[in-house]
Design a protein that fits this description.
The structure is a single chain. A hairpin with a 2-residue loop joins strand 9 (about 170-175) and strand 10. The protein folds into two domains: about 1-245, Spore Coat Polysaccharide Biosynthesis Protein SpsA, Chain A (Alpha-Beta Complex), CATH 3.90.550.10; about 250-284. The chain is an alpha/beta fold. The chain has helices at about 35-45, 60-65, 70-75, 80-90, 105-110, 115, 140-150, 210-215, 225-230, 250-265, 270-280; strands at about 1-5, 25-30, 30, 50-55, 95-100, 120-125, 130-135, 150-160, 170-175, 180-185, 200-205, 235-240, 245-250. The strands form three sheets. Strands 5-4-1-6-11-8-12-10-9 form a nine-stranded mixed sheet. Strands 2-3 form a two-stranded antiparallel sheet.
Length: about 280
């Protein structure tokens, strides 16, 4: 199975930090956000990845490419640990790139992958600004659902009722523990109209017929081509409650929280970071 990572958004909520760099390249602790996403795909058994980019996203391509000058410098100065890390990035998978010419929504971004996916029965989609953490990678969990039921599968998670307006929300019937047969999907509904509090959270395994539906779906919420609207046309879609934790890097506060949490996992810097945070908090 191949994977598609949409990473063409403008990142306006991070301005001015994203004026000259993609939001997907903002570091979460010691790695750019999108590297975590690529690593999830690889850990799920995928080695063919297409990243959908846009204007001003060249640094994403450079990050996953070889850097001969840097590698030479590190090798010359016996910085083997850094050299190994740098070389490993370019060896993660076969990574390809295509540009979304206009900002016309997530559905349109996915449609840019149709030629790359041609001939595949299904493919994975991982949003480039969402990180997941779990024993079994989120995308692998969805691939297992697809293999079991032979139908598209999307990751969902429970969110507070007062936050349903931020997400695509599913309406479905429970078929087994943590798995729902989806009857409908609504993009960012008002609280009073939300059919549940199960939110679509940025990971999908979609049958390739989705491209036909994207091509025919009219502009939806915000005047954009919504992937949710195209998925509603699929005959069968399963929702899988993700067994793990999701980190949405879509705004500055959540990005900062995620970076701190990931830093706390590092045994070497945790003690110093804890002391610093305690001292900082005591001043407020």
């Amino acid at each position: 199975m191949k994977a598609v990572i949409p990473a063409a958004g403008l990142g306006t909520r991070f301005l001015p930090a994203t004026k000259a760099q993609p939001k997907e390249m903002l570091p979460v602790f010691d790695k750019p956000t999108i590297q975590y996403v690529v690593e999830e795909a690889v850990a799920s058994g995928i080695d063919d990845i297409l990243i959908i980019t846009g204007k001003g996203k060249r640094s994403i391509e450079d990050h996953f490419d070889r850097s001969f000058e840097l590698e030479y410098f590190l090798r010359k100065n016996n910085k083997k640990e850094y050299l190994d890390e740098v070389e490993a990035i370019s060896d993660l998978a076969d990574i390809y790139f295509v540009r979304q010419k206009e900002q016309k929504g997530l559905g349109d971004a996915i449609y840019c992958a149709r030629k790359h996916i041609d001939g595949e029965d299904a493919f994975a989609v991982l949003l480039g600004d969402t990180i997941t953490s779990s024993d079994v990678p989120c995308t692998r969990q969805l691939m297992d659902i697809y293999e079991r039921y032979g139908a598209s599968a999307i990751a969902v998670e429970e969110v507070p009722r007062d936050k349903v307006e931020r997400y695509g929300i599913i309406d479905g019937k429970k078929v087994s523990e943590g798995i729902y047969s989806i009857d409908d999907m609504v993009e960012k509904p008002p609280i009073s109209e939300a059919p549940s509090n199960l939110a679509i959270m940025g990971r999908y395994v979609l049958e390739s017929e989705i491209f036909d539906h994207i091509e025919n779906v009219p502009p939806g919420f915000g005047g954009e081509i919504q992937l949710t609207d195209a998925m509603r046309e699929l005959k069968t879609v399963y929702g899988c409650v993700f067994r793990g934790k999701t980190y949405d890097i879509g705004n500055r506060v959540d990005w900062l929280k995620t970076s701190l949490e990931f830093a706390m996992r590092d045994d070497e810097i945790r003690p110093e970071l804890v002391d610093y945070l305690r001292g900082l908090i005591s001043r407020y």
